[in-house]
Amino acid sequence: MHVLLVEDDALVASGITAGLRLHGATVDHVETAQAARNALEAAHFDLVVLDLGLPDEDGMALLQSLRGAGVALPVLVLTARDALGDRVAGLRAGADDYLLKPFELDELIARLHALHRRAAGRTVDLIRHGPLSVDPATRQVTLHGVNIDLSRRELALLQALLHHPGRVLSIAQVRDCLYGFEDNVESNAVNVHIHHLRRKLGSRIVETVRGVGYRLGEAGT
Amino acid sequence: MTLRSRLLLMIGLSLTVLWSAASVWMLIDLRHEFRGALDERLAASARMVANLMEQLPQAPQGSQQTSSPSRRVVDLLTQDGVACEVRLLRGDVLARTHNSPSDLGFTATGYSTRTIQGVRWRSYTLDQGGIRITTADRVDRRTALLKDIVVATAVPFLIAMIGSLLVLTLGIRHGLAPLGLVRRALADRDPGALQRLPETKLPGELHPLVSTINSLLDRIQQAMERERRFTGDAAHELRTPLTAVKTHIQVACLANGGEETASALLHAERGVLRLQSTIEQLLMLTRVDGAQPFDGEEAMGAADIAAMAMEGVPGGQRERIRLRDLGASGKSSVPGVLAVTAVRNILDNALRYSPPDKQVTLTIAASDEMISFAVDDCGPGMSESECMHSLERFWRKGRGHGSGLGLSIVAAITDRYGGNFELRPLPEGGMRARIAFPLA
Fold it and tell me: CB-based contact (8 Å) between B402 and chain A?
């Protein structure tokens, strides 16, 4: 799950970033509306967490212009203002969910998972793929009913593939899912994670489409 | 009682009383004139008969009454409804109209009113040339005639009065319609609504009232808007560091020890410090804004204020302040704690917005009535509109990390104690913030 966090307060942002990373998400943080626009153009994201009080532009205006430009990403709005009018306006402007500061980190995570799941068209949290099942909320992965330990990046890679079954993900897309902008990515880092996934979940779990990218294959074989 | 019923009652009652008094007066006058005129007629008739009798050839004594010329004369009068009797002073009746009673002539000369055979008569008696002529009207006839005349005059009078009352009612209703408009506009509103009342189609008397109400509504609306914004801003300023603290503490728990936990706790502590400073600034602002006195706070001299303010600046920053004392003596009238707060706030701002390697200068000076503290910085400066905004609560320039309340507090302190606070850009770049307090 690749999350774009748009939050102008550095202290709040570092907390949310650390919390989401601990829950296995890949997080990129920007402080301004303009930076958010640039980030959305430059990379693939699954979700946006948007604070309404931005220094250069009102968060609501940013949301409206994004929706106007056809950006359909799930957006969760954070705000410290609790006026009901603000909340209604936020949902009208195209927010998918709304969370009032201060919030429980667990609740933020749960809501983000729900938004992500809904965006993928699933109604239950558990993702099943043959003998493999993944619970994004608890990060529990089982194969034939046996618990499998996956690292954060391995899980992110698996989730990205499960999220788009049958589609080929380019190497750049896969990298976006695994790393934020600040992470220093070594050239063969993605390959290392793919290698580990194949070792733990069967060699055919990731299919390589030569010169294009990777696709979800069969699990457990 | 409504204004309309009061007006209706007052004008209606006075109109009715005036009209009635006038008509009673007219009636009395009319009756008097009418009686006079009828009496005059009786006298004139009697004189006419007397003149005619003189021109008649002397009738032989004891001649037949029925064919006598005097009889023909009095017959003329009967057509007029007047009874007449002509008799010799000796007592013999010469002629008598057929409507006249038999004893009409038994009276003194002049006017008299008598009852003859059960009927009231008004008579006039004239003695001339040995003949007594008496003319008379039936009083009930006269009364009936008078009644007819009174009725004929009173009906238009009454119609005019009822008409004027109706016109009055309509006029008042129409005249007070604008009031009704305002009343309905007020009654139809939601009690909490603050939109303006309509000012068009109002008479001159109501204009000042409605425009006063409207300007009051405007001011209330502005005050409420300010209040709402302040509450919203305060919620934002308090919840943001609270969120940071809470999130970092949760991260610290999640991370289960190690470097990540330590860094999260460090961040949480930074959030607590920010929260603390915001709360302190808010409390200070509330105290300065409120009416609570700062009794027991002693006044301080300029040098002491400057020294205390510099002491309040965090350790590493203090060395960046250069103090220039242009010889300020005397004590300020502002309670010491507030004076120190104000000066420390402008020092904080200057340090925060200047590059870390640059100095800021604090100059203290005194004139006859004021002592002043000027802080010059080497920061990016502010435009004129930013200078204005900077006094708004929670406003910060760009991504400044203060609470956004520092300069609001300075302005509130100088306002309360009759001091001055000005911000202006320096020609060589940077800003000068200058506070002046009146001398004690």
Answer: no
Tens of pLDDT, residue by residue over B250-281, are: 999 988 878 889 999 999 999 999 899 889 88
pLDDT at B63: 45
Nearest CA in chain B to A102: B243
CB pairs under 8 A between A and B: 79
> Across the interface, do A16 and B247 touch by the CB < 8 Å criterion?
yes
Helix (H, G, I), strand (E, B) or coil at B73: helix
Reported pTM: 0.63
Model confidence band, residue B62 (pLDDT cutoffs 50, 70, 90): very low
Which fold does the domain A2-119 belong to in CATH? Rossmann fold (3.40.50)
Question: Quick one: which of B312, B279, B229, B285 has its CA closest to B411?
Answer: B285
B132 interfaces chain A, CB cutoff of 8 Å: no
Strand-pair partners of B363: B324, B374
Give the CATH architecture of domain B299-438.
2-Layer Sandwich (3.30)
| Greatest extent of chain A over all pairs of C-alpha atoms, in Å | 55
Q: Rounded mean pLDDT of chain A?
A: 85
> How far is Cα B353 from Cα B425, in angstroms, rounded to an integer?
13
Burial of B300 (0-12, 13-18, 19+ CB in 10 A): buried
Phi, psi torsion values for B222, nearest 5 degrees: -65, -45
Residue B258 φ/ψ, nearest 5 degrees: 85, -170
ipTM of the complex, rounded to two decimals: 0.74
CA proximity to A51, closest of A123, A117, A121, A102: A102
Q: Residue A23 in contact with residue A104, Cβ under 8 Å? A: no
Domain map of chain B by residue range? Answer: 3-163, 206-289, 299-438
Those residues with Cβ within 8 angstroms of residue A180's Cβ, 6 or more apart along the chain or in another chain = A26, A27, A28, A29
Which of A23, A101, A104 faces B240 most closely, judged by CB atoms?
Answer: A101
Closest Cβ–Cβ partner in B243, B267, B398 for A55: B398
Assign domain A127-216 one CATH number from 1.10.10.10, 3.40.50.20, 3.40.50.300, 1.10.10.1800.
Answer: 1.10.10.10
Between A152-163 and A171-178, two packed helices, what is the crossing angle to 10 degrees?
130
**Given the structure tokens 């006029």, which residue do they identify?**
B171
- How many Å separate Cα B167 from the centre of its chain? 27
In chain A, positions 88-127, which contact chain B (CB-CB < 8 Å)? 101-106
Cβ–Cβ contact B352 with A under 8 A: no
